[in-house]
Amino acid sequence: MESLSNRVTSVTPSLTLSVTNQAKALRAAGEEIYGLAGGEPDCDTPDFIKQAAYTALAEGKTKYTPAAGIPELREALSTKLKTQNNVDYNPSQICVTSGAKQACFNAILAVVEEGDEVIIPSPYWVSYPEMVKLAGGVPVMVETKESNKWKITAEEFEDAMSPRTKMIVLNTPGNPTGSVYSREDIERIVEVASYEDIIILADEIYEHLVYGDEKHVSVASVNEDAYNLTITVNGFSKSHSMTGWRVGYTAAPEAIAKALSTIQGHTSSNATSFAQYGALAALTDEASAPFIDNLRGEYDVRRQFMLARLKAIPNVSVVEPKGAFYFFVNCTGLGLKSVNLCDKLLTRYKVAAVPGVAFGHDMGVRISYCTTLDVLNEGIGRFEEFCRSH
Ligand SMILES: Cc1ncc(COP(=O)(O)O)c(C=O)c1O
To answer: Residue 200: which H helix or E strand, with range?
Structure first.
């Protein structure tokens, strides 16, 4: 359509949403669908968080807040980042956003100029390339190797660099692969980034969902270069099952932080006032840690169940995901492109999964385990049947 901007016509609508809609339509028509496509915890937001938001509403905390968020929340985030992530950010360096998604977008808008390149390791979370395009930048996708657990190496990063490179996106733990970058991985990447002062967008939204011996390492925490180059993005959606609340945040060096707050102030003004009080409870209430431990424990059981089942399926391969709540299944051996594969899987076997092309890998599918063991059992059984018949 002629009246639309080039900016928006260059952007692809979200494929994850289209799968969800197709599955919804089949459900509405009375079909039983086994949903392995979800991207959010399957439990409700804990009551202590809801209660804090009810109280805020009852107390009339219903007006605009400062653009960067209520002072108590920024203070609590500063403490959290120091004690849990080992990074020293003052409250003034923190900007509360409407979800981690807006946090990523603010970060990209703040530093990417028309024509600047942003390196995105692939498979990637669907929205990064589209956000870069909306900001006038050029996404440069770098294919990662299954043999390196779907993580970009410092060498691959260096090879992809050009004089226009402005930013690299590091998502750890990652969606859709569940890969977790170690301290050494991060240090090597930071070293390359520091040659040309390339900004690192560190999306750590899945930080609390890390399993086994693996530990989450915050990118900004590894050394001074990392701190100076990193915009940390995080939020409450996955750790506290608060996807609908829309609360996330950025933390960054002072000069970038100011720009991030300016963008926030001129776009959504502020994250919803009473939702910010809910987020404050998520950080300060003593019920928070047991809630997260429980969630992680439950997801680890499902992860191990799915790993064992997936490993027994012929013609597909899988890397053990150490974080988040997804498996990225390499289906190259089935010889079907991902949309075709997911379409057949949904219409014939009633299993919803997300085609890998949404994440930049057209021979894979993303299967999430944020659903009950019963649904996982039935869904993976059907997926196996599908794979064996191809
Ligand atoms: C890697 C990644 N970053 C950011 C987000 C967005 O999170 P939020 O719901 O807080 O906007 C998601 C949500 O799926 C995600 O997977």
So the answer is: strand 199-203
